[in-house]
Amino acid sequence: MISAQGNRFTTHPLFNFSSFDTLNLTYGIHYFEDTSCWAVGFKNAWGVGENEIPYLVYYDNAKNSITREYDPPTTKIPWHVHFANKNNGWCVGDSGLILQYVNNNWQMMNYPTDEFLVAVFTIDATNAWVAGGMAIY
């Protein structure tokens, strides 16, 4: 992750690697006022092929580290995350993936579609807009 203040940029490693044998891609982040965030994406060991593992991690700025992780019970990759406040948010991804964050827990939601969902904007604790469409590979 990179932060910007005017024309000054600072790198903030989300993951600390002891080796380069793992590929981690972060597709979406949502920051809060204290500069802590939820980040979403996938991890994959090099050379493993299509064995991508979805992840959601909470980066605690005060502790300068990941303090919470959620591994969804699916192989669908999360692409975007947005919160109404620090306790209520949504995450969307491929093949109609929809997750809701309530009471400090991520919950899988019933999928109204199998389309590729790429963006979510949270209105409040229970309402959100989602955008997506057909995935072409």
Please give a quick description of this structure.
This protein is mainly β and 137 residues long. The chain has strands at residues 2-5, 8-11, 22-31, 37-45, 53-60, 65-70, 78-85, 88-93, 98-102, 105-108, 116-122, 128-133.
Topology (elements, then pairings):
Elements lengths: L1 E4 L2 E4 L10 E10 L5 E9 L7 E8 L4 E6 L7 E8 L2 E6 L4 E5 L2 E4 L7 E7 L5 E6 L4
Antiparallel strand pairs: 1-2, 3-4, 4-5, 5-6, 7-8, 8-9, 9-10, 11-12
Provide keyphrases for this structure.
single chain, 137 residues, mainly beta, 4-stranded antiparallel sheet, globular
Explain this structure to me?
The protein is mainly β and 137 residues long. It has no helices and twelve strands. It has a four-stranded antiparallel sheet with strand order 3-4-5-6, with no helix packed on it. A four-stranded antiparallel sheet has the order 7-8-9-10, with no helix packed on it.
